Amino acid sequence: MNQPVPQIHEADAYIETQGTAPVSNPYRHNRLPALIVGLMVGCIAFAVTELLRRIAPTWNGTYFLIIPILAAFVGHATYRITSERYGSAADRQRIRRLELAMIFLLLKIATYLDNTLPEIWDDIRHWPTNPFSFFDLETLVAFALACAAWFSAAHTARDLEAVADPEIYRGETGPMERLNRRFLWGGMLLLLISGMARIEITAMLHPDRPAISGLALNVLVYFILGMAMLGQVRRVWKSRLWEQQHYRISQLLQKAWLKYCLISLFIALLIAFVLPNRYTLGLFDIVGYIVTAIGYLAMMIYAGVATLFNLLMSLLFKSDSTVALPSLPEASPLPPDIEPSSRTPLLWLPILRSIVFWVVALGAIGYVVYSYFKDRPELGHAFTNFKIIQTARSWWRALRLWWRNLRRQVRRKLPTLALNFSFLRRKGTHRETVAVRRKREALREQMLYYYLETLDHARAEGFPRHDSQTPYEYQSALDPTLPEAQAELSALTQAFVEARYSNHPITPDDVTRQQVNAQSVHAALDKLHTSSQLTND
Amino acid sequence: MQNLIGIVLILFLLAIFLRIDFYFNIVYLLAAVYLLARVWTHTTSRNLTVQRRLVNRAFPDENIPVELIVSNSGRLPIPWIEVQDSLPVELISPPFHREVITLGARQTQRFNYTLTGHRRGYYTIGPLFMQTGDVLGVIPPLTWKQKPEYIIIYPRVLPLEKLGLPTHSPLAVLPARSPLFEDPTRIMGVRAYQRGDSPRRIHWTATARAGELLVKRYQPAIARETLICLDFAQESYAGRRFYDASELAIVTAASLANHIIIHERLAVGLATQAVDPLENDSQTFSLPPRRERAHLMNILEVLARAQTTPTPALPFPEFLRHESARLSWGTTIIVISGSESATLYETLAYLRSAGFALALILIMPPAPDDHLRQIATDKLPIYRVWRETELEVLL
Question: Is the pTM of this model over 0.90?
């Protein structure tokens, strides 16, 4: 018997389920996702309404807010109902077209809410003669917004269904990724619209304009709702994948997931409100002030030193002869009083606040970027392959080398000076920092590595170390086989045991020695291999 | 939400450019979500430990209970952990042990499952894969695996009658015609004390009972050691019943070793060339004859691990000569092979002439001309193990 071939949309690679979606789908009879999607669309609609009200302050755009929410809710519900009840795609399309027509009519009616009955009647009388009066700009814009809400809700409903039932999706971009992408792009759109609703277009390019304060609650609600929902969707998605792979899922997982998702979002929200979001001075201004302050300090130090030097010089080379000073020309009269500057004197508090802001903001962003690259080392490697990065790295290495050599020379030539200045001292006199400890541990790891690598090599040549053998036993077992490299093998083993079982410090020289010894043993093993091959031949 | 970082960066630049305060709040919110997820996941993953408890040696058809202990020693809860233990199908039938759990702060969960070894072998239990991540999916999940453990299922040990082999000499020990040596572990009886007898020979309990000094009489023997030489080259077992025959050879060797150590209380050793899964290469196993039970377990372990080798270091007859060089005069050598050849018989004849007691066990169907072979090889005991009904029962 021929199996029915599932129909696949070419555009998005979804299989038409034709009312056969599994009953276990948690989104099928759940109104909560529809409500959340409706609210999120409402957040965007609110921003659009704000923007339009800024253009036309007298315009009552309440319906602009309500209709998209309804459209989103209806779009979500319609997708669910049509996919359950209507098997044919044509039927579904017909229902959807009807629904959109209904939404348009509803919008048209809503545009008349502010009008009186005679005004409405007058407008209706013009419809046959002027069809454009029916399709006016306001209604069309509102309809476009409602359509966007309707389609995005319907697509979200479909993606949610695919998340709960991965069998119905065959495309490249998974439903989770589609949902995430939709959420983030929606968020970006919302932010842009909300920003435009608060800022004058003409003032946008003005660098000295004041910051725009105030909280956009709809933006915040959008992001919080979206992330909470995506967290739950992710759980459903993962649960389905686990079920497919026959994992036994803990009963507590659902509650725990929701709890930790909400806790995470709450903490993140708290952090977002605690951290400073205002600054008086821009980043370049702050850098400029810091550089100026450092320069000023340097000048002060120089002036102090120069004054002392002059004083000493004047005491040493005291002269009784008086020098006749040349007569100065008569001073010109003072210019008229300069008007006081209109700019207010800079206060320390705003500067400090700005510094704190930039440190926090750049620190957070920097750490996020650093973490991102650290979690994805392949991106880091790709990044370092750029020519410019390689050049910069080689310059940096050269600079470090130069600095190290300079320090060494200064230490050698001026030992007293080196004792007084900490940056000239040897590293050994420093208290051990985490970085130093890590470096030391890395050296130890290298010591172990060379020994273990030699073991691997020996094993490949047919001299495996047995589990019961200590390094020294293994050495004595291998010694007769490698008479040429006995000393190196002994040193290698000794260094390994010391690195492995003692806390003695390891220096780079030790590592180099270990490497050389390992190479000698490898060479001896290779030689043995070649000679045994020759014998066999 | 893998592209969250891009959005955060764009938004941050936009916020600086437009100077809108709440943009920074959103930047902070998204950055905080990312960093929280990362710090949480990385911190909790460091505190996650998994321990597998099992007895790693068992006999066939014995149940091996395994306990998996997943612990979170940290103060942060772990939202989800995917635990997947890789198990050999020979020990457990699918679905394998796969769990998704959530762990609270300082919480431990235990899982139990049972493995059953039906076939001898050296099996890898694990590696155990674990995965954890954040609930929002902003960072890639962390996956790590725990080192695998190993379990040895010993070969089946059967009474010799089941294999159709005699339970006593000449396989185990050969009494000597001339009493050159005596075996103090094999007491034949007692006799009256004579002048010159060592006081260590006095049988004190018998003396007390009889009221006169009695000394022990030991069975004279020229050898108390036996070496089982197992031919485990693939070519020796070629044929339709390759697998059954090679397994029967192992069972035969294990049963003999067990019989000699447990019932005869004599020393036995093992020499074979086989692939060792531990080294993943052909190895020569040479366990010298000893009589302790622990030694029997060593022999069984080797037999459990051994796999037929396609490339033995030495041809089997040569290997026999090589191994016999280490044996003392009069040692019994039991040769187990899946094939016979003129070279093998020549080698056996040579060994016999060198003073070793020999027995040949062929894992082959019975042949009517065995007595002719025995005559030709100076009454070399030849046994054949090849019973269809037994094979089914044994394996």
Answer: no
